[in-house]
Amino acid sequence: MNYDEIFPKIISHCKEYGFIFPSSEIYDGLGAVYDYGQLGAELKNNIKTAWWKAMVQMHENVVGLDSAILMHPTVWKASGHVDAFSDPLIDNKDSKKRYRADNLIEEYIDKLQAKSLKETEKKAKKEGWEPDSENYQGFLKNNRDAKKAQTVYENYVKALESGDLNALRDIIIENEIACPESGSRNWSEVRQFNLMFKTQLGAVAGDASDIYLRPETAQGIFVNFLNVQKTSRQKIPFGIAQIGKAFRNEIVARQFIFRMREFEQMEMQFFIKPGTQKEWFDYWKRARREFHEKLGIPASRLQYHEHEKLAHYADAAEDIQFQFPFGFKEMEGIHSRTDYDLGRHQEFSGKKLQYFDPEENKSYIPYVIETSVGLDRTFLAHLCNAYTEELAPTADGGQEERVVLKLPALLAPYKVAIFPLMKKDGLPEIAEKIFKDLRYDCLCTYDEKDSVGKRYRRQDAIGTPYCITVDHQTAEDNTVTIRDRDTMQQERIPIHRIREIILEKLDWRNVL
Ligand code: GAP
Question: How many Cα atoms occupy the beta-carbon half-sphere of 336 within 13 Å?
């Protein structure tokens, strides 16, 4: 099936099987806010565990943190979020729809590039050109749409770099970019809109002060830099990692859990000696991509993407993009943040945030390499990668369609499903005994309803990698069958070896 047709199916699959529900659904939902259901919560926790193991457990020089969501309001002044954490927005005066001006332009560039690729492929087919031939590459670079895409892109980068909102609007007007909803080209001015959610601390209106829900977890790490460094006695280079909620009042919140107003980040700030940032940036860029590949994301669905415009605090930034059904999009950012954040907090708080380097015998503000991955986007990437529709053999020798989530075993919500073949002849008692023993090791489920074929389909649809069936032979020789979700092959194994076999399959050593 076409990869882009899959997205609506994945969204309804998530709802049908209890992975993700719209928030407050009985009140018609809340825009771009979602709840994770019983299976979604498990998958999410398993991704968090994988990240925590890879970052904290596997690195002696990375420690964890769990800082508060609410922080002193000056934190966000120092970090630059109060003044600069905004999106350039444009309204369509006819449809009354609001868009991010940068997104409208990027989508226009993507369309031009897709058109030029299509045209090149058509020509190549006719002329017999290979994709790596000079003819192919020359035609791809020089056709009308490709050249136009390049010009628009250059003007766009210039406008972003100079922060010129009028120039962004000019690109939209000159290229006759239309409102995707109504086709109208009647646009307002472009304005900046701050994305932070404001709330109040204190009960009495007059005494209350404005505070913000954190838009990133990173600042909790920066303000605790010395607390953690001193109490953990870490020496530079070392990192602080944390997983937690972040909130952004996204204006254009679309694409399911890809862009939400409440989401989770898994971030790590790695504190280094100034001057070593290039080396550590390259290290973490590679390590983070490897993490996704080790967890089963195919290399062909990942790519690096260099930022068009660097944030004011960064001297290098690249994204790791995943090929979502709607294109290659950011899943993780690797940022070289210099000494900006610690320097600003030192300035605004008046407290020294320096590290005494015993080797150099001097104090300095460390530089920082940040790795920041969206938990929800990683979840979505795994779902998109795992969701498969295929034909499976039936007991009577025919075939039927099955939907299967080919999730890595360590991420799957249930690891093992245990079935008695029938609800009689003492089979349920044996199956329950196996279930009750194995649940100490991993999350298991017990199911005795419907035919075994139907039970297999139910487990395939939620990604359970192994199904154990207790049948009449079990009563005779203490063996069961274990079925592999992906190959659908069954193997007969003794009951006393179940635990050893399952634990071997669930060993983090085989993944990280
Ligand atoms: N501390 C750096 C930082 O927050 P970012 O690129 O703004 O950088 C990091 O965010 C990651 O957080 C992104 O790569 C993405 O995976 C995730 N993310 C950002 N905004 C999001 C949103 N509205 N919904 C879901 N995930 C989001």
Answer: 20
